[in-house]
Amino acid sequence: MFSDEGYTTLFRVRGMPVRLHWSFPLGMLMIGGFNFVPGLWLAYFVLVAAHELGHGMLARRYGCVVTSLDVHGFGGLCSYAGYPTAYQNSVIAWGGVLAQGALGLSTLGLVAVLGQPATEFSAGMVHVFTRVSAIIAVINLLPLNGLDGGRAWKLPGFWWRRVRHRRTSSPHPDDLAAGFAAKIRQREPGPFRKEPEEEVGRVVRIERGPDGQVRVVAIDAGEDPERFH
């Protein structure tokens, strides 16, 4: 049932296998204080799976192949293969806490609409999706290697460097003004350009030829247009 690594595949989400480690029940006993709290256990599994799924969705967005979404007794792991940049790895690192945030906000919305949970099972799930999730997110975002925060907090630095690069590479307003002025000068008549002659009012007449075709014939300026009417 379990592989050599100690995992078994439960199901797949858009082709990404969700695997459970044999240590998960032991971790749940410790988290539940060795009490029978199935709501808390189920909610913890969903929370960790959602966290890893958030990583996996962003990894796929950047062209990576997600090999597994693992849930074990003390957390989870998203494994993917590909060649993401350092910037993309920072974005992927934020996927877990963003998924937790979405799950927590959805839970708070349901509580606001439906009221406080009436059973111990649902109360345990609400507790995990809100308070426990917030604690896990804060710990996971600590700027330490091995945690998501070790890569996630590099993202503001990447954004700042991008902004600085755009500022330095974009043309100065004076350069833009000089460029427009040069374009205007190109349209102005040069020293060897023939000045346009004074326009003379043009008169035309329309006639039908022997073949039945209609022609527009120009009249010289000196001719009297009345004789062509």
Describe the structure.
- There is one protein chain.
- The chain is an alpha+beta fold.
- The chain has a domain at 7-166.
- Helices cover 51% and strands 17% of the residues.
- It contains 7 helices and 6 strands.
- The protein has helices at 24-31, 38-61, 86-114, 120-140, 149-152, 155-169, 173-187; strands at residues 7-13, 16-21, 65-72, 75-81, 203-208, 214-219.
- The strands form 2 sheets. A 4-stranded mixed sheet has the order 1-2-3-4, with helices on one face. A two-stranded antiparallel sheet has the order 5-6.
- A hairpin with a 2-residue loop joins strand 3 and strand 4.
- Helix 3 (86-114) packs antiparallel against helix 4 (120-140).
- It is elongated.
- The chain starts with 6 loop residues before the first strand and ends in a 10-residue tail after the last strand.
Rg from C-alpha positions?
37 Å
Q: Show unreliable segments.
A: 225-229
Percent strand equals 15-25%
Work out the helicity level.
40-55%
